[in-house]
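batch job 7 of whatever, protein = Glycosyltransferase
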Amino acid sequence: MKASVIVAVYNNEEMIGDCIESLLRQSLSKKEFEIIIVDNNSTDRTREIIQKHKVKYLFEERMGRARALNKGIRNAKGEIIAVTDSDCIAHKDWLENIVKKFGKKSVVYAGGEILAYKPRTLVEKYSEKAGILSARTVLKKNIFYPPFFQTANAAFRKSLLDEIGLFDEALVSGHDADIGWRIQWKGHGIDFEPSAVIYHRNRTTMKGLFEQFKRYGLSRTALFKKHRKMLKAFFHIDFVNIGGIFYALLQIIPSLILGRTELERKKPILDFVKRSAFLYGKILGSIKNKVIEL
């Protein structure tokens, strides 16, 4: 079997059905891949909805997305492990295009583009314009942290995971960055396939945006603590993000006056929420993990 698609899900009865149906409509021959959905101890109708579809259902009692994904990997038969999230919709050619990327033996770790799925609210439209979760955004050159693919759209050769190990179950979040960095530090490449597209539902409210970036900040400090030796740093301060907070504050009043659309008028407010939430999460994480990562 060429590929195993793995989705970890927790209490997502609203979206898991659409996700599965998009995977069942893939252009790749059904004989060449399997779909594994790992229920991470959901308490809503998630299990019931999964079992209405012709997919492999697994249950992981221990909480944590990394644990759920690892259970799927251990039960996978495919040579290639492709992962996406339960709040995502896969383009019909997604899996076929990602599998083609592995036609070269040198490719062991790949991912595709992540686009916004039907943005409706102001925050969703802002996230789309800002490229939040876009692979192109995450893969932009960073002088401190290596690039990686998010688990909304990533694929691994299974033999690679046998070599470097699975997702780190000690991490509450950031396990996708962790495994991507470990792969590269072992000397392997990272390959982007823009035609392998996943559509992701962004946060719909300002509160949701704040919580999302607070979680990113918290996970960043845990990653810094774990990989400080490889990163060759005792501390790290993101002056670009901190400077962006002050810049956003300065832009709020002019934008409210001069902005032609609601998004133009409120973009600096949302920039401030996003950046300050990221810093707030890093402050909390720095205290918790006893590091300086701001």
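notes: Strands lie at 3-9, 33-39, 56-59, 80-85, 88-90, 109-116, 154-157, 191-200, 235-236, 292-293.
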